[in-house]
Amino acid sequence: MRLGAPGHGGFCVGRHEGRVVFVRHGLPGELVRARVTEDRGGSFCRADAVEIIEASADRVPATCPVSGPGGAGCCDFSFATPAAQRALKATVVAEQLRRLAGVEREIEVEPIGDEVVGGWRTRVRLVVDAAGRAGVHRYRSTEVIPDLRCPQPVAGALDGVAERSWTPGADLVVAVDGDGVRHIVELAPAAEADRAGTRPATPRGGTRGRGQRPARHRESGRPADERGAVRDRAAARKSATNAPREEWVMAGSGRAVEYVAGRRWELSATGFWQAHHGAAQRYSDLVAEWSGLEPGGSGWDLYSGVGVFAARLGEQTGQTGAVSAVESARSAVADGTAALRDLPWVQLHAGRVERWAREATTTPDVVVLDPPRAGAGKEVVAAVTDADPRRIIHIGCDPASFARDLGLYLDAGYHLAELRAFDAFPVTHHVECVALLDR
């Protein structure tokens, strides 16, 4: 089949015998032979391009040996030039904005720092198979591929990991911090593994701690008559995986040191931090540029993590101003409070963003939101717009949820003043978008 435009999720759209086919490992305009990988009936199926009959001029030798047809889902576009990768993402962002927010806008996806295809990721999440080997999940599967040759991690991040035996069923978090120190933390197998009897009584060395951010697994494709059972098992997996998990520090201290705008943070190596080594600084600079805050002003930083954006807002408002930051992870709030102790007018709150924003009585000058991949949603956007800030800075790592949230702001009477998109996840289909909205 001849491939058409890219779709949201790392594939191109083709058609065969009247059906839509979502084809991975191909580029727009290419003529490919594709093998169906998932077909549940209906109007579409999924496939891998297993032979390139007529190649695009943008095609290059793949830089990731793990993610080809039948492989992992780590590097969706490792076979395309960096410029072509960004063009694919720009097309997807523009289409999502048009379809979900009614916004017609030309998009340019910008690199963060120097143009790279590898060596940018400072945070890596791995899974451990039943034999104790670290690896990654096969695309749309829970099967583990024990191959760590993906080019994304920074140099040295995975040295020796493949040669070591780990706790079967555990997850591994590898973090290389701002001082260049590598931390490796095992997350104990989820409760579902406990019930199956696959968790050993003790970890393979290391120190213990409390888990913070649970792993997430994809449901694999199954025939239609098994979907109910699959959904039940997926729900059980999600419930088990979201339960608190013990942490065992296997290398480093388990406390990562990071720097943004001259400020030092110390946080759990398993806590949230931007994966791209240059992303936190880039977004922080943009927030400071767009906020418009002056001494004595006020702001909110929602889904604040350790308060990277709150710090920039607080520095702008000065001690006569007021900044509130809200984050559900109490450990992140504690770490952020320690990092911002010289800014007592910046208050970090532990709680659910939707509840805090709904109950807040202040009127901020600016609100910054960096929600999870699912987006902020109607309740949070309504609470923010009801607070009537002059400016809203919204950050999103999923074009679809970002566009849906953007549409809600527009419906509430806000205007899209600026929009930037960043290639914060090179060789993948992921892209970070930042919007400035005002009245």
UniProtKB/TrEMBL annotation:
Catalytic residues (positions): 397 (nucleophile), 397
Ranges for domain TRAM: 1-51
Start and end residues of each stretch annotated as Disordered: 191-245
Gene Ontology molecular functions: rRNA (uridine-C5-)-methyltransferase activity
Pfam short name (any one): tRNA_U5-meth_tr
GO terms, biological process: rRNA base methylation
Binding site for S-adenosyl-L-methionine: 274, 303, 327, 370
Keyword field: Methyltransferase, S-adenosyl-L-methionine, Transferase
Annotated Basic and acidic residues bias: 217-235
Similarity-based family: Belongs to the class I-like SAM-binding methyltransferase superfamily. RNA M5U methyltransferase family.
Name used for this protein in its record: tRNA/tmRNA/rRNA uracil-C5-methylase (TrmA/RlmC/RlmD family)
Organism: Nocardia ignorata
